[in-house]
Amino acid sequence: APAVPASGWPSTGTPSAGWPSAPVTGAPATGAPAGYPGTPPTPAGYRAPFAPHGPYASPAAYPPPKAPKPPKPPKRPKERSPLGAVTFSLIFLALGVVALLDLLDVFDVGASAYFAAALATIGLGLLVGTWFGRARWLIALGLVTAAALGTATVAESYDRIRGVDGAVTWAPTDYRDLADRYENSFGDAVLDLRGIDFSKRDSQVTVAINFGQATVVVPPNVDVTTVADVNAGDATIFGNRSGGLDGRLRESTDLGADGAGGGTLRLYIHVNAGNLEVTR
C-alpha cells in the first residue's frame, strides 16, 4: 500500500482516485473533506470589534460654550436743557409787565390776567421745546396754571357783595374794588360810586334790595343808563319820579353835565318793596 504523506499534502507518486494529478499550490481549500486540515485557527489576542459603529459607540462631545457678549457701552448722560429755566424766567417777566400795566392803570387787570400771561408764556415754552430742548415739567405747570385761570375767571364773572340785615353803605374808592352785584335783604342800602373814576371804562353794576330804600350816587361825568324795577314803591332817577305797583322795567339814560364822555355805567336795580333813588 502506498505510504501516507506526513505533511498532509498529496503525494507526488501515482495519482489516486479523487486526488488531483498535480500538487495544489496556495492556501488549502476551506471545504476539504473531514480529517484533512482546513483554515488555520486565528491566533489569540486583540480582535477588531464586531460592530465598531454599533449602539455602544461613545457619544459625541458637547460643543464648547460660546464666548460671552461684550457689555453694552454706557449711555451718555442727558444734558440738562436750559429751556425750563428760560421759560420760568420769562413767566416772571410777563407777570412783571402785567403788574406794571396794572399800576399805570392802562386797562382793567384782574387775577385772571396774571394767570393768562403765565399760561401764554408756558405755552410758548412748550412750543419751542418741540424743536429745541426739553422741559416736560412745564406740562404739569401749565395744567395747574390753566386750572387757576379758569377759577379766577369764574370768580371775576360773578363778584357780588351781600350786606347784612339792616342799614348798609357801600363806598368803593377804587375801580378794582367795584363789585358786579350788591345785595341787601332788609334795611336801607346806599351805593356811593363817587370815589371811582369811570373814564375810558365800560362798567355794569347790579343792585338788589328786598325790603328797604335803595340809593345810588354816581360821579358827575359818567354816562349812566339805568334799568330799574320797583314792585312796591317809588323810583326817582335823576329827578324823574315814577311809582306804582306794576313792577315794570324803567330804562333811562343821563349823560351828566359834560355830555357824552367820561366812561359809561349801566345800572340794573331791583327793589321788591321800598323806594329807589339814583342821583349824582
UniProtKB/TrEMBL annotation:
This is Cell wall-active antibiotics response LiaF-like C-terminal domain-containing protein. It comes from the Bacteria. Keywords: Membrane, Transmembrane, Transmembrane helix. The chain crosses the membrane at residues 82-101, 113-132, 137-155. It comes from Micromonospora acroterricola. Coiled coil: none annotated. Residues 183-278 form the Cell wall-active antibiotics response LiaF-like C-terminal domain. InterPro entries: LiaF-like_C (IPR024425). Residues 1-80 are annotated as: Disordered. Residues 61-71 have a biased composition (Pro residues). Residues 22-37, 44-60 have a biased composition (Low complexity). Signal peptide: none annotated. Pfam families: LiaF-like_C.
